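GH3 auxin-responsive promoter: structure, please.
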Amino acid sequence: MAILGNIIKGIINLTDTLSSETNHIEAQKEVLKNLLETAKETQFGTYYNFEDILTSENTQQIFADKIPYFDYNSLNEKWWHKIHKGEENVTWVGSPSYFALSSGTTGKTSKKIPVTDEMIAAIKSSGIKQVTSLNNFDLPVDFFEKDIMMLGSSTDLDEKDDHFEGEISGISASNIPFWFKGYYKPGEEIAKIEDWDERVQHIAENAKTWDIGALSGIPSWIELMMQKVIDFHHLENIHEIWPNLQVYTSGGVAFGPYEKSFKALLGKPVTVIDTYLASEGYIATQVRPETDAMQLNTENGIYFEFVPMNPDYINEDGSIKQNAPSLTLEQVETDTDYILIISTVSGAWRYLIGDTIKFTDVEKAEIKITGRTKFFLNTVGSQLSVNKMDDAIKHIEEKFSTTITEYTICAKRFEDGEFYHSWYLGSDLKDDNDKIATALDDFLKEANNNYKVARKKALKGVKVAVIPVETFHDWNDNNKKKGGQVKMERVMKEEKFADWEKFVQKA
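Here you go.
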């Protein structure tokens, strides 16, 4: 009998029973008040007079009126650079214990995003919320005795002066509660290995000794890990070695594009739970099985604002224009794309995280990621968001009975002086490229009226090249590194696309 599992599930049930339904709108007002109160004597809080904002009748509105939008570059240039020089109380009290290194999807240069002790506590609180919400998924009691494989960046953080540096997944894993360490795999020793391929090799070699019940990580890297384990042990699917695998917790990217290839590695269905952990904080987590939408973590150190997604509000470099209007949680609507803006206990203020979301349920504060501001393709007025591109890829998968786990696209001017959408698809699809291009084109014209109009004017046509998916992984390895929070850029500018095409030709 699963005695320990019964105890753990009983605790989760009790915690869930004792916790009342969150009023997310009121929770957000309280979070903003606490942020301003805590940071009012910092350099940033003094400069923008947080004291006055706190005493105003409408704190949310005055906060939005007085504080400009920032992205990483502008906040780092004006404020965070002082932290790197050793100054304290810059945008948050004291000094951060960690810096999250993030190259995101834009290149080799790492951003250094402050991660304070308060943010670590907020991430842990959101993690507890995720664990307690497992009660909603009707999992058997023995699940709570199984190991959990968390595959992120190396937990061997670099010590620099008075802080540590690493990717947020490595920072989070290095701060797991002591009681969780018995369940955590691949374990501290393997998790510290910096080289991705070496780490996965060790995972494959030790796989038989673990009873994995849940996997957690970016879909593309979890797939590569599972494939390595399958190949190493000459298996048909991952359940042959981990028969009790029941849950996969995705993170940071939409799971949809990976669903077909992911399921191909399984022997039976698993429960997929989406989460949204970014370098700047733990944004959201799925809390119920009736939907694949995620609930914003409205109580844990992050204040959210939402800018309606409109090309007129976005600069060429993907940053946001200062005249763009922002909405509070109380003002948003469902099924509308918004640019996500956050203020946090790590001292990010009105910060453009770079993602776009839409609400599926405002009262429950449930969202879906719809894309990236930098991946919004509008070079010739086509207004293609990543979710529309993902839908098109899914259509191609169904139409041609194939799997496409990675892709990238550029609005490229060809030798004839005309613009074409040039797609690279990661697949073993053997059909004629022109036939695939026509299917993509037809689907997008049907799904997006702006695209249809652009195709009649400035957008001449669509070109497709099908390449091995490994080429995408090698590109990431060459330009950033494998594993962790690294994600393939879905849309490239022409200059970078030229480098990509040279890399593909060499590969």
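Notes: The chain has two domains: 1-374, 377-506.
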